[in-house]
Amino acid sequence: MSSDNEVRYLSSHEWGRIDEDGILTVGISEHAQDLLGDIVFVELPDIGDMLEAEGESAIVESVKAASDVYSPLTGEVIEINEKLIDEPEIINNSPLEDGWFFKIKIDDDLQFKDLLTEEEYNDTCED
Amino acid sequence: MVDFHGWDMPINYGSQIEEHHAVRQGCGIFDVSHMTILDFEGSESELFIRKLIANDVRKLLENYSGLYSAMLNDKGYVIDDLIAYRMDNGFRLVVNCATRGEDLKWISARAKEYDVNMLERDDLSMVAIQGPQSPNVLKNFPAPIDFLKEKKRQQGIFRDDIFAAKTGYTGELGFEVILPNEKAIDLWNIAISEGAKPIGLAARDTLRLEAGMNLYGFEMDETISPFECNMGWTVCWQDDQRDFFGKESLIKQKESNDLKELVGIITDEKAILRQGQKIHLEKENHARGVVTSGTYSPSLKKPIALARLPKSESTSCFADIRGKRVKAIIGTPKFIKEGKLIFKEKV
Questions:
Q1: How many CA atoms lie within 13 A of B94 on its CB side?
Q2: Residue B204 lies in domain
Q3: Contacts of B148 (CB under 8 A, 6+ apart)
Q4: Distance from CA of A34 to the nearest CA of B (A)
Q5: Contact (CB<8Å) A37/B272
Q6: What is this structure's pTM?
Q7: Chain A contact present for B190, CB below 8 A
Q8: B297: distance to nearest CA of chain A, Å?
Q9: Number of domains present in the structure of chain B
Q10: What is the pLDDT of residues B174-222, one digit of tens each?
Q11: Which CATH number is B342's domain given?
C-alpha cells in the first residue's frame, strides 16, 4: 500500500490518512515505533466496532512497553490489518505504509483538517 | 542512549530482538564498564572476603577463577550480588553499578577491622563477549586474551594489566575482559572486526532473563532473602567454622516456613508479563505473588517471567495484566542455556 495523500496526526502518535472517500486509514508514527522498539503483539479492534475520536482503539506491545492506540477520528471499523497479528514487526519496518492498523468509515471529512499536520506533529515530538 | 546511574548507555543499537539472536546464535559484545570493580589486597584479604560474602572464596583453587555470591546484611538479606575472583595478591569483586554507593559504605565500614586495603578500579573498563561463536572470536585475539581458550568456565587469565575470565550474564559460552581504559577501544574494534555484534541494555535484559539470572533491584534487594531469589545455592556452608555477615539470620530463615520461592513462568497469551504484576495461584482470589522481571522471550517467542510465589503444589498461576487474568504455567527459574530450552514445567 502506498499513498501520497496527506497524513495527519494526533499528539499521541497516531496517524490518519484519507485514502478513499470517507475512509480513514490509521496507524502509528515513525517516531512512535522508534520509541516503542521491537513490537511483539498487537490487539486490533473488531470490524464493526464504533470508535470515537481520541478513544482507545487498539493496543500495541513492544518488549519495552504496552501502549494504547487512539483513533484520530470517530467512525466504524471496516477493515483491519490482520497481517500484523502474526508479523507485528511490519509496524517497525513500515509504520506509515504496510504497518497500518485499521480503516474506519468517517462521517465528517472536515474534522480531518483539525488533526495535526506533519510539521505540527514533529514539533510536539521535539519537546 | 540513556543515563544509567551516571553512565551514558545504549538501550539498543538497532533492533533489540536482532541483538538478542546475535548472542544466542553468533557472538555479541557488551560494554559493561559501568560495573564497579573493587580490588582487595593485604595480609587479611582472604579472611575479610570470607566474612564479607556468603559464598566461600576458599573454593577458588586457582588464581583468576571466580564465583558468584551474595553479599548479605545482618538480617540475611541481599545487599548485592557479585562475582569474586582470586587474584595474585588478594581478591577482585565485580559489583553492581546501581548499588555502588551502598556497597562501598558497607564494605569500607567493615574492612577497618582487618589488614585489608580496598581500591576502586575506575581506571579499568569491562567488556563482555558472549555467544556460541565467541571461541572463534577469541582465537584471533592477541595474547594474553587468547590464552583463555585453554580455560574452563569461571576460570581466567591475567597478564599485562589484562584480566579475562570465562564468565557472563547471558547463559551462552563467553568471557569477560577487564582492562585499562585506554586499551578497551582496541579490544572492542578487534571483536567487531571478528564479527561480534554490539549489544545494548535491552537485549542484555532479555538474555539474562532467559538464562534465569537475577538483576539487583528486581529479583532481590536488601529486604529479600537469598532463599527467596534462587540464590540459596550460592551460600556456602562447607566450613562450619566460617562466619559471614548474615549467617545467623540465614540459619533462622531456613527454619521458617513462610519463605517464598523464585519460579519461572510462561504464558501462551499475547500479553507481556512485566515487573510488579500480581500473581494469583489457582483457585485463590487474593494475590500471593509478584512478577520480579518479565519480558518477551525472543528465543521462545512467548512472554516469560521470573516470579516470587508462596510454595505450593500449583503448576499454574494467573498474572494480572492490565485488568485481565492471564494464565501462565509454573516451572524452573531458567529458560534457555546455550541456545537450548532448559525450562522444566512443574508437575
A1: 27
A2: 2-210
A3: B138, B156, B157, B164, B165, B166, B175
A4: 10
A5: no
A6: 0.94
A7: no
A8: 9
A9: 2
A10: 999 999 999 999 999 999 999 999 999 999 999 999 999 999 999 999 9
A11: 2.40.30.110
